[in-house]
From TrEMBL:
Any one GO CC term of the record: plasma membrane
Coiled coil: none
Lineage: Bacteria, Bacillati, Actinomycetota, Actinomycetes, Streptosporangiales
MF term (GO), any: transmembrane transporter activity
Organism: Nonomuraea cypriaca
Membrane topology of the entry: Multi-pass membrane protein
Pfam family for this entry, one: MFS_1
Protein name: MFS transporter
Locations listed in the record: Cell membrane
Amino acid sequence: MGAQWSAGVCLAMREAGPRLLVTYLLITGLGEGIFATLAAPFVADVLGGGGDAYGLFLSVQAVGGIAGGLLVAAHPGNVSPRALLGWGTVVFGLLDLALFTYPLVVTALWPAFVLIAAAGVPAAAAMAGLTTLAQTVTGDEHRGRLFGILVSAQAATGLCGMALAGVLGDVAGIVPTLCVHAAGLIAAGLLVRFGARR
């Protein structure tokens, strides 16, 4: 088991494609940990919503994700996996940034539902691109190891993001900390789109 893990790490560090995907998931995993921790405080303290608002917030996010999955499935092969992952993540980050900052100028609750649903569409596109790209950047003999490294990278930084959210949320505030998540998505998407291919 240890030898296989070492081989997977070596693969991720040696080849540009796997290394890019690991870097992507390290960045976005950190942000997902932040969002998972601060989503409820964002709805309650920033948007002024109750438990029902938070439930609806999560529900419309899922609806957006389903719509995005159906949209991508309806147009297979029209966009490369790398473009799908890169631009999908950038648009996801921009919509999240709008979601987190609009309460600074508008006090209504409904834009949050519209924006979180809309963000689910590029998020689903990015996930489709990630899954496809991960299957094509290495051969059959290394694919399982690569997926293990990718899942581990995302899980590890997700935990770090949760811890970071607890600290930054108190020091900097909920909105600025969530903006770190949005900025990370934008940066990761641009990295995938314009990073080294080999």
